[in-house]
């Protein structure tokens, strides 16, 4: 049997990734004592690998495919195939940022003022490249963790990953600039990508994962509408395509079904009701394939 060796990021992205696969129709169960989770797809063998190491193992062919951040692809300089951009993180569906941060009372206000200073970060290669482009010469040292605690005693500034900036603020740190925005990428080994079976399997998984992501921000709406109110109801609905309108047994009424952004539902449903829609049902989606 053909088997696809797939890497799942261990750590902060682990639970969000497993949930995304579940919505895509692939169930992964992680044991607390194992780095080889169970996967209900017999054609997929899963390994838990830290996102920082994922590009290297995929490039080497130890894994056929995996999920990691664009930041770690750039940091490793790995030669891999980026199959899909999957915009999700630990706590939401937004890109994450690597930012330069200093203590709130630091005199450093701009990137140029970092000249000759010490910067602690896990993203050494990317930061050094960023500073060269800015014409800044600084001592960039690798941080093994707890980077926010390095300033001001062990470093003048840090470059750290943030989603909302709340953790930095809680540690009395101020953002000076953004070094890089990053999203999760589904990547493949170059030789695996040339293998017809593996490529098709990777493409299928990428399609389902992307569909699950899109579905996560949308919901379905069903409702009944009299034909005399149909025009007014349709004006309210922002659909991905035209809504599905089906006749009901009662000639003057139709059933209407549509997909909308979840954030807009709280405004749309009251407006639909006022426009004459009845029996409105909201339901979640697992996958939306454009």
State Rg.
24 Å
CATH topology of the largest domain: D-Maltodextrin-Binding Protein, domain 2
Oligomer: single chain
* CATH homologous superfamily designation of the largest domain: Periplasmic binding protein-like II
Strand content: 25-35%
Instruction: Report the end-to-end length measured between terminal Cα atoms.
Output: 31 Å
State the CATH architecture of the largest domain. 3-Layer(aba) Sandwich
What order do the strands of the largest sheet run in, or round the barrel if closed? 4-1-5-12-6
Could you describe the largest sheet, including whether it forms a barrel? 5 strands, mixed
Protein structure class: alpha/beta
CATH class of the largest domain: Alpha Beta
Would you give an account of this structure?
It contains 9 helices and 16 strands. It is globular, with a radius of gyration of 24 Å. α8 packs antiparallel against α9. The strands form 4 sheets. The chain has a 5-stranded mixed beta sheet, with helices on both faces. A 5-stranded mixed beta sheet has the order 9-8-10-7-11. The chain has helices at 14-24, 54-60, 70-76, 124-134, 166-170, 190-194, 196-216, 227-236, 265-275; strands at residues 4-10, 28-29, 38-39, 44-50, 65-69, 81-86, 96-103, 118-121, 139-142, 157-162, 173-182, 184-188, 218-226, 244-247, 253-261, 278-284. By secondary structure, the protein is of the alpha/beta class.
């Amino acid at each position: 049997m053909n088997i696809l060796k797939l890497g799942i990021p261990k750590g902060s992205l682990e639970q969000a990734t497993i949930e995304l696969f579940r919505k895509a129709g692939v169930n992964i169960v992680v044991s607390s004592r194992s780095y080889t989770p169970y996967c209900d797809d017999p054609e997929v063998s899963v390994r838990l690998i830290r996102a920082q190491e994922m590009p290297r193992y995929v490039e080497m062919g130890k894994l056929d495919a995996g999920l990691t951040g664009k930041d770690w692809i750039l940091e490793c300089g790995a030669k891999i195939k980026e199959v899909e951009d999957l915009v999700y993180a630990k706590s939401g569906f937004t890109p994450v940022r690597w930012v330069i941060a200093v203590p709130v009372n630091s005199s450093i206000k701009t990137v140029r003022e970092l000249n000759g200073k010490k910067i602690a970060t896990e993203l050494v290669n990317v930061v050094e490249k960023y500073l060269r482009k800015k014409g800044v010469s600084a001592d960039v040292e690798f941080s093994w963790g707890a980077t926010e605690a390095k300033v001001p005693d062990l470093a003048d500034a840090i470059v750290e990953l943030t989603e909302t900036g709340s953790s930095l603020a809680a540690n009395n740190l101020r953002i000076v600039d953004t070094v890089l925005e990053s999203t999760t990428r589904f990547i493949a080994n170059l030789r695996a990508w040339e293998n017809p079976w593996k490529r098709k399997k990777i493409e299928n998984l990428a399609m389902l994962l992307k569909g699950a992501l899109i579905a996560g921000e949308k919901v379905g709406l069903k409702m009944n509408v009299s034909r005399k109110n149909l025009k007014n109801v349709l004006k309210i609905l922002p659909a991905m395509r035209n809504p599905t309108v089906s006749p009901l047994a009662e000639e003057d009424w139709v059933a209407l079904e549509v997909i909308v952004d979840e954030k807009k539902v709280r405004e749309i449903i009251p407006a639909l009701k006022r426009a004459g829609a009845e029996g409105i049902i909201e339901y979640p989606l697992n996958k939306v394939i454009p």
